[in-house]
């Protein structure tokens, strides 16, 4: 009996740790094709600053459940291209499939493409993004935190409030 308990405990821990690690290992750092196309072609492109504190949820002013601190429309093609390129680079750079369990998003993108609204809720802290099409969750993607400075600069230049502690 004394030998069985440690063995069972070790097996249980391996099972739990394997289940937790599996999604990160199985996830591909790739923006879903429909979202990548919308990033390039959408008629509207809005960049959001979000409050990452879960204690502050829910709010009347929210972006997929996260409090909006501010937003700006990205009408300049060069600015839009730099945001998309930074996000694509962050995705390409996550070659190890690293992702954390937290989700404290500070950024969001809203696109309007082919009659649909696409929201990307971005957590550069945990290296993951969640995608919603017409309010319904769909396939997300992983990345690194490298796009964060580009996103923050665009928000700062537009005089949009950033969450405390990320400047």
The CATH class is: Alpha Beta
> Helix amount, in percent?
25-40%
Inertia-based shape: globular
Count all strands and give the number. 7
- Give the count of structural domains: 1
Which structural category fits the helices and strands? alpha+beta
- Give the distance, in angstroms, between the N- and C-terminal Cα atoms: 56 Å
Roughly what fraction of the amino acids lie in strands? Answer: 25-35%
Q: Whole-number radius of gyration?
A: 18 Å
Largest sheet: 7 strands, antiparallel
Q: Write the CATH fold name.
A: Dna Ligase, domain 1
Strands across the major sheet, in which order?
A: 2-3-1-4-5-6-7
Low-pLDDT sequence parts: 4-27
Chain-averaged pLDDT:
84
CATH architecture designation:
2-Layer Sandwich
Order of helices and strands: HHEEEHEEEEH
Number of helices: 4
Write structural notes for this entry.
The chain is of the alpha+beta class and 167 residues long. It has a single domain (28-157), classed as Dna Ligase, domain 1 (2-Layer Sandwich), CATH 3.30.1490. It has helices at residues 4-26, 33-41, 77-93, 148-157, and strands at residues 44-50, 62-63, 66-73, 107-113, 116-123, 128-133, 136-142. It has a seven-stranded antiparallel sheet, with helices on one face. The chain is globular. Mean pLDDT is 84; it is low at 4-27.
Question: How are the secondary structure elements laid out?
Answer:
Layout: H1 4-26, H2 33-41, E1 44-50, E2 62-63, E3 66-73, H3 77-93, E4 107-113, E5 116-123, E6 128-133, E7 136-142, H4 148-157
Keywords: Signal
Signal peptide: 1-26
Protein name: Lipoprotein
